[in-house]
């Protein structure tokens, strides 16, 4: 079955994608005890902003401390990837070389209790469950210390769920965000644009084709869509603890840094529906003990384990801290530049 309908939209059974979605907001808000104005914004513009609470701010401070601790101890509890590089073990890294704009840490909830609690927080998860209309599950978290500076894109281009329309995401500010720090960019209303097909019948970026040429064609298409709809790029400058929740089809990216000395600490989480996502898999690249190879080894780990808190659900990190530290103990080494 095609993932696109006759209008080049992702086939979706979710209420917020229905033609009469605005008529359903009040019932949805009442059933889940949520702010109807936020749901209206989501249906119309493809995103909502859940403002900071004291609980979120306290958890944010704890996560930032945990990240700093990992850089100080280098025990191999976290998964690191440098700018444009593959995931590896965070152990024995030189902060002067590797703690630089563009790096990220995957699945911080694998070693940080604060990251777990942030990902499961009910003030955010309540909206995610209400949007899907069924039990949601978080399946990936990403920590950024600086802005990604990534070009505008739509998440199903890179992240595949079943169905592709079953994808929501959140972006949590871990500090007050300044305009010069490369803030998040997004295009309100762009979630309604017809999809660009990188290959016939599919929206995922095809690694087999000329990706530069394909991405340029995608960019030309969304610029045409923006002009036709009178849409503009908006940058998100907000306070610590604010959370942007967005539709999988929303165009978003990262602004260039005007001042690289300013950080833009954030935590991104991706969500799907628990009924179709039953496991997650993640891989790392590392040098095996006494290796004579010319490249590191890829090692994958899969998990079916789900962490619960009230009505919130999240997959355990496939590579949790105990597994990574065990590898380091066996002599496996980080491969940060691969």
Q: Mean of the pLDDT scores?
A: 95
Q: What strand line-up does the widest sheet have?
A: 1-9-6-11-5-4-2-3
End-to-end Cα distance, whole Å, is 38 Å
CATH topology: Jelly Rolls
User: Treating each run of at least 4 consecutive H or I residues as one helix, how many helices?
Assistant: 8
CATH class: Mainly Beta
Helix content: 25-40%
The total number of structural domains is 1
The percent range for strand residues is 15-25%
CATH homologous superfamily descriptor: q2cbj1_9rhob like domain
Silhouette: globular
- Under the CATH scheme, which architecture would be assigned? Sandwich
Radius of gyration: 20 Å
User: Helix-strand pattern, N to C?
Assistant: HHEHEEHEHHEEEHEEEEEEEEHE
Give a quick set of tags describing it.
alpha+beta; 8 helices; single chain; Jelly Rolls; 338 residues; 3-stranded antiparallel beta sheet; 16 strands; 8-stranded antiparallel beta sheet
Summarize the structure.
The protein is α+β, with helices and mostly antiparallel strands and 338 residues long.
Structural features, described:
It is built from 8 helices and 16 strands. The chain has 338 residues and is an alpha+beta fold. It has one domain (15-194, 232-334): Jelly Rolls (Sandwich). The chain has an 8-stranded antiparallel sheet. The longest helix is centred in the N-terminal third of the chain and has 20 residues, at 54-73. The protein is globular, with a radius of gyration of 20 Å.
Break the fold down into its secondary structure elements and pairings.
Elements: H1 21-32, H2 36-45, E1 47-50, H3 54-73, E2 79-81, E3 88-89, H4 95-98, E4 104-106, H5 113-119, H6 122-132, E5 136-144, E6 168-173, E7 184-186, H7 211-229, E8 234-236, E9 243-247, E10 252-254, E11 266-273, E12 280-287, E13 297-303, E14 306-309, E15 312-315, H8 321-329, E16 333-334
Antiparallel strand pairs: 1-9, 2-3, 2-4, 4-5, 5-11, 6-9, 6-11, 7-8, 7-10, 12-13, 12-16, 14-15
């Amino acid at each position: 079955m095609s993932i696109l309908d006759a209008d080049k939209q992702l086939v979706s059974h979710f209420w917020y994608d229905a033609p009469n979605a605005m008529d359903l907001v009040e019932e949805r808000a009442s059933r889940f005890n949520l702010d109807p104005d936020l749901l209206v914004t989501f249906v119309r513009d493809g995103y909502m902003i859940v403002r900071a609470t004291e609980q979120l701010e306290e958890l944010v401070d704890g996560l930032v401390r945990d990240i700093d601790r990992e850089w100080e101890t280098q025990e191999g509890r976290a998964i690191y990837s440098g700018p444009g590089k593959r995931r590896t073990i965070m152990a024995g890294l030189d902060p002067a070389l590797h703690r630089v704009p563009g790096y990220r840490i995957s699945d911080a909830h694998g070693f940080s209790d604060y990251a777990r609690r942030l990902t499961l927080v009910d003030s955010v998860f309540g909206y995610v469950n209400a949007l899907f209309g069924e039990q949601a599950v978080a399946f990936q978290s990403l920590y950024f210390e600086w802005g990604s500076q990534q070009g505008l894109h739509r998440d199903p281009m890179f992240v595949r769920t079943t169905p592709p329309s079953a994808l929501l995401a959140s972006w949590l500010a871990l500090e007050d965000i300044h305009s010069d720090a490369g803030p998040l960019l997004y295009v309100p209303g762009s979630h309604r644009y017809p999809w660009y097909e990188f290959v016939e019948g599919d929206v995922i970026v095809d690694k087999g084709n000329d990706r530069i040429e394909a991405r340029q064609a995608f960019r030309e298409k969304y610029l045409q869509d923006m002009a036709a709809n009178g849409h503009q790029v908006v940058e998100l400058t907000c306070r610590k603890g604010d959370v942007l929740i967005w539709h999988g089809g929303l165009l978003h990216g990262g602004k260039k840094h005007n001042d690289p000395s300013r950080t833009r600490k954030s935590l991104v989480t991706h969500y799907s529906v628990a009924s179709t996502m039953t496991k997650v898999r993640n891989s790392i690249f590392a040098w095996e003990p006494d290796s004579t190879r010319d490249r590191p080894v890829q090692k994958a780990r899969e998990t079916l384990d789900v962490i619960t808190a009230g009505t919130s659900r999240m997959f355990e990190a496939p590579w949790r801290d105990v597994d990574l530290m065990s590898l380091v103990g066996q002599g496996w080494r980080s491969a940060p530049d691969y």
